[in-house]
Amino acid sequence: MVRANGVAMHVQQLAPDDPPADAASRTGPPTAVLVHGIATDNLASWYLSLAYPLAAAGFRVVMYDLRGHGRSERPPNGYRVDDLVDDLAALLDELGIAGPVHLLGNSLGGTIAFGYAVRHPGRVASIVAVEAAPATTRWLTRIRRQLAAALGPARPAAAPGARYLTALRNLVATTSAGQDLPASTPLAAADLHAIDCPVLGVFGSESAAADLAPSLVHLLPQARVVVIQGHRHAVLVTARDQVRDQVLPWLLDQLGPGSDSTPGGSSSGASADPAGLTAPRR
Predict the structure, then answer these.
(1) Is this structure's pTM higher than 0.85?
(2) What is the mean pLDDT of each run of 10 residues along the chain (282 residues)?
């Protein structure tokens, strides 16, 4: 447990196997910070998907449970996106990680990653956003609807999404998250211009969040987007091999000349250029 920003946070780390020579010679092994999503999610979704492949590829891997999730403390308030960004910044300081780091965020975790990059642009090397978008006005409207649904009638235990809604209902009932998240300060296009690092967006083709992909490229022209066919919002877990095959080569490519990498391409079941969404990388 690490106390950061006044909250006891559950943290897990994996040491790198053999850091890419070029990166290690400059600053030590590159650091990948993995940020999970809301409600039913915790660091286990990364632990069971990309954490070990990233460590095997030479990254120092840092995972943590967001406040109110997993084994981290659940304070009654402090759930605006800015609060969650403050948690991440304080945690990296407590761990002595000055950056730049590679941020990988799933769902709400990706939104936190974008918020951190806006406020700390020099401390982010790249962003991988799985089923995620920045906290724009449009995003805040979506999260407001989701939180409202959590307060609606309970679904039968076997119904799709019932477990997620139950966990979200519990979070809203025991914290101020239901009021805080929709009241977060929206990011304007001018805010997002501060993000000049490479960005990879990963979406499931059957996810309700897939319609965020075009706006992600519009807001961040340097972003590359891939769509994993036949998967929904939990694509990080349900298609972990396809996600890994997209993310790892892309991340290694960001380390620059000298790393043992090749540009990420399309894997089976994935489209690297869905409906013209892919933008050239800088």
Answers:
(1) yes
(2) 98 85 65 96 96 96 98 98 98 94 98 97 96 95 85 67 85 94 95 92 94 92 96 95 97 72 35 39 31
Is residue 169 within 8 Å of 150, Cβ to Cβ? yes
Q: What is the CA radius of gyration of the chain?
A: 18
- Stated as kind and residue range, the H or E segment containing 60 is strand 60-64
Supply the angle between the helices 81-94 and 108-119 in degrees, to the nearest 10.
70
Q: Can you tell me the distance from the alpha carbon of 7 to that of 70, in angstroms, rounded to the nearest whole number?
A: 13
> How far is CA 116 from its chain centroid?
11
Strands (E) in 84-240, as ranges, are: 101-106, 124-130, 199-204, 223-228
Report the SS3 class of residue 12: strand
Tell me the two tokens of residue 93.
């300081």
Q: Residue 1 gets which letter from DSSP?
A: -
Residue 273's φ and ψ, nearest 5 degrees, are -145, 65
The answer to whether 192 and 127 are in contact (CB under 8 A) is no
